[in-house]
Write the structure tokens for this entry.
Amino acid sequence: MAHILDDISRTFSEYLLIPRLTTKKHTVKNVSLTTPVGKFKQGNASPLSLNIPFVSASMQAVSGPELAIALARCGGLSFIYCSQAIEAQAAMVHRVKSHKAGFVPSDSNVKPDASLTAVIDLVKKTGHSTIAVTHDGSGTGRFLGILTDKDFWEFEDDLNSPVSKYMTSKENVVFGKEGISLHEANLLLRQCKKECLPILDARGEHLQSLVFKKDYFDHRNNPNELLDAKKRMAVGAGVNTHDYKDRIPALLEAGVDALCFDSSDGFSEYQQAAALWARKQYGASIIIGGGNVVSGDAFRYLVERADVDFVKVGIGGGSICITREQKGIGRGQASALLEVVAERDRYFKESGVYVPVCSDGGLANDTQIIIALAMGADFVMMGRYFAMTNESPTPKVSMAGRVYKPYWGEGSNRARNWQRYSNGDDAGFKFEEGIDAYVPIVGSVRDALEVTTAKLTSTMCNSGALTLREFAAQAVLTRISEQTFVEGGTSTVVSFDKENQETA
Ligand code: MZP
């Protein structure tokens, strides 16, 4: 007879945190959000730690190179999606790793005979006010000069004139050459009191990149950047249990920092075989996450029998996921997380090895992110949250007066990532487990994370915690009734703002 668990499957919105003593040392400034990704022995450090506990989902509509760079700059990690050709995924990883902080490829370029009108159009399109002039109008053409919005007056000068008449030509431009370090480039900018330094090839002819003064300040303002030992941006990548023998070597060759299985159900011999293969090939030098699971025994299996470095929790909770409806499997995310975290802590006590746990999917707002971390997740993986940012790889779409971005599940007909749902057999795509939808735009990754981390650090202070480990160790949570939920909202007052928003 089927075994029925005594507990009800619960989710994050059913819980609230009870404040603990806040002492004078519990200030937001003193809080550290550093958290481990790779397993480690008691007393040792994790081989990879995040500076904020957020990673982006391995999904087509979420984790491309632009998002990966933006998230790494804030201290988190992206897992570049694996539902694409191996070469394409490795190229994305390579793009992140070769993104030289401070050296930007020149995106706005013109030929010397272009008119000022063409320049004004380009500035409107790109938003860049520094335009490189090259012989062929490309970002790597022979460098001829620089034009900025200070070089001409839109309403005074003849806009049909060629750029060559107004630009600062090469002989009067201070430039650097290939091989210059960022430190030297910034020094040159400072000494010459310039805003932008073109970097040319070793012969001093072709344009390679630009270094901006404003990026220096930006970098100083990003103390959380997640970098590897060579000071390159950190990036992760998803893998599957089908083509891993080709995909994993290609991703490692491209410089990936962490891998994770992208599977809707990771409690399988297929995942064990793939993880053990990777471990045999590369030993402890790689970080590979297993999952997804929703039970303590599945966590144990992946840790003890598949030797994974972290475990991802969550089946059926994703905002675009219909697995529970389609197949009747899954578990409320809070119940799943609490059981896996308890097993992680038991395993740590027995073995002295700490295996980080990631709560993946279904986080509908900042409060739920906070509850997941309070329940013991070391970090959270999110799809919808990052799909809503400027840096996700999808185009903006305007509908009914608002701007959206498309967001679709990996199990949707659009993504057709059948490898995520089929473990061993090459079954192909038979039915959908995800939907194809839209999400409103919220702005940049930085802006979104700034608000979320502000709420998280504030709650940690309320809970008397300065680290995420302390937060989870001393969190006291209460289950809430429907009426408590109503009481927590603003139902007994009339909010005109809210009403206006709803009818707008
Ligand atoms: P969310 O942050 O949008 O709620 O959920 C993102 C997570 O949903 C992903 O990290 C992945 O685990 C899961 N996912 C991705 N595609 C599907 C699907 O098509 C899915 N069903 O469930």
The CA atoms of residues 209 and 217 lie 18 Å apart. The mean pLDDT is 92. The pocket of MZP is lined by residues 57, 59, 292, 314, 318-321, 323, 360-363, 381-385, 409-412, 433-434 (CB under 6 Å).
